[in-house]
Design a protein that fits this description.
InterPro entries: QcrA_N (IPR045603), Rieske_2Fe-2S (IPR017941), Rieske_2Fe-2S_sf (IPR036922), Rieske_Fe-S_prot (IPR014349), Rieske_Fe-S_prot_C (IPR005805)
Strand order of the largest sheet: 5-6-7-8-13
Oligomer: single chain
Main location: membrane
Radius of gyration: 36 Å
Subcellular location: Cell membrane
Protein name: Cytochrome bc1 complex Rieske iron-sulfur subunit
Order of helices and strands: EEHHEEHHHHEEHEHEEEEEEEE
Distance between the termini: 94 Å
Pfam family, one: Rieske
Helix content: 25-40%
CATH architecture of the largest domain: 3-layer Sandwich
Number of domains: 2
Number of strands: 15
CATH topology of the largest domain: Rieske Iron-sulfur Protein
Length: 353
């Protein structure tokens, strides 16, 4: 590309034969300024502006209806009801309804505000010079004047339908938070103290789904079990297994230090809750030589040869032990429920039952 192909105003300075400097008439780096303002259809057509106003009002109205639906769902849907949602599976119906209605209510307020700003509020581009951090009186007056002008251009006073529905949506939405406080109750009463384990319940292998015999538990092994009759297809499976999950190990009887643990075992086979007593994580790491189990979440360590007591970490109390034995058919069975609640501590844990 030759210099003849370049516009003259883009050519650099150059020297002439007599040493004179030739300077282009225009500065190629000059501020081009703002492009011409293009009016939106809503700026020139009041019918289009009315349609945008109705759209914004519809979004705010949907938000109000969803907030009402949130409150109605809290009272109308049973707490233990579950529904199947593809592809998630079985979930709690109340949680699904509360999350859906609250999410749509918040989204519609945001979407309405954005659509209002994009279609009805002023979109004229304004360039303002930078000023010192400390504003002088003239600047403060200008800011207040700009605010008043912005409020005027927002048409909030003129668009009564938007104003009414927006205030309604914003007034109703905080009620959702008030009713969320009810999620802290009702009290669990005796639910935290009892699991599916009961006298005569067979110990079923979590992997094979078969009842366990003493011969299935070799010395030094770690086996996970569940109560007989609990199936993964059950709607409340996750809720029940969170309390009833069991880990079984076999220790030489002479290595068991705690007398009650020895009495509650069968030929060195001991059964403990798999739920960590810190925040309820499932325990899965077993050290064969020391008979210690480790929670992978926060490294709480328990000694399964000494009553499941805490050796290290933030856990507050020992793992609950399950009293087990063998039935007449030779299968391992529970002799009752855990002697104390499983999982993390709670205020009423030490209270009389």
């Amino acid at each position: 590309m030759s210099n003849h192909d370049i516009p003259e105003e883009n050519l650099p300075e150059r020297s002439t034969a007599h040493g004179e400097v030739s300077v282009p008439d225009e500065n190629p780096f000059a501020d081009p300024g703002l492009p011409p303002h293009e009016h939106r259809i809503q700026d020139i057509d009041e019918g289009a502006a009315r349609r945008s106003e109705r759209t914004v009002a519809l979004l705010f109205t949907i938000s109000m209806l969803c907030t009402v639906g949130f409150i109605a769902s809290y009272f109308a849907i049973p707490r233990d009801k579950s529904i199947f949602v593809f592809p998630i599976g079985h979930i709690n119906a109340m949680n699904f309804a509360l999350g859906l209605t609250l999410g749509v209510a918040l989204f519609c307020i945001g979407a309405g505000a954005v659509h209002w700003a994009r279609t009805l509020m002023s979109d004229v581009e304004i360039a303002d010079e930078r000023h010192a951090i400390e504003a002088d009186p003239e600047t403060k007056q200008k800011v207040l004047a700009d605010f008043a002008q912005g409020a005027k251009e927002s048409a909030l006073g003129r668009r009564g339908l938007i104003r009414t529905t927006m205030f309604g949506a914003l007034a109703l939405l905080p009620l959702s938070g008030v009713f969320l406080l009810g999620g802290l109750g009702p009290k669990p009463e005796e639910k935290l103290r009892h699991t599916l384990w009961a006298k005569g319940k067979l110990l079923v292998n979590m992997n094979t789904d078969q009842p366990l015999r003493p011969a299935d538990i070799p010395v030094g092994s770690l086996t996970f079990a569940k109560p007989d009759g609990l199936e993964e297809s059950d709607e409340d499976f996750q809720q029940q297994i969170a309390k009833a999950a069991l880990m079984i190990i076999r220790i030489q009887p002479e290595n068991i230090k705690d007398k009650r643990e020895l009495d509650w075992s069968h030929d060195g086979i001991v059964a403990y809750s798999k739920i960590c007593t810190h925040v309820g994580c499932p325990i899965s790491l077993y050290e064969q030589q020391t008979h210690h189990v480790l929670c992978p979440c926060h490294q709480s360590t328990f000694d399964l040869s000494d009553g499941g007591r805490v050796l290290f970490g933030p856990a507050g109390h020992a793992l609950p032990q399950l009293h087990i034995g063998v039935n007449q058919d030779g299968f391992l069975e529970a002799r009752g429920d855990f002697a104390e609640p499983v999982g993390p501590a709670f205020w009423e844990r030490g209270a009389e039952k």
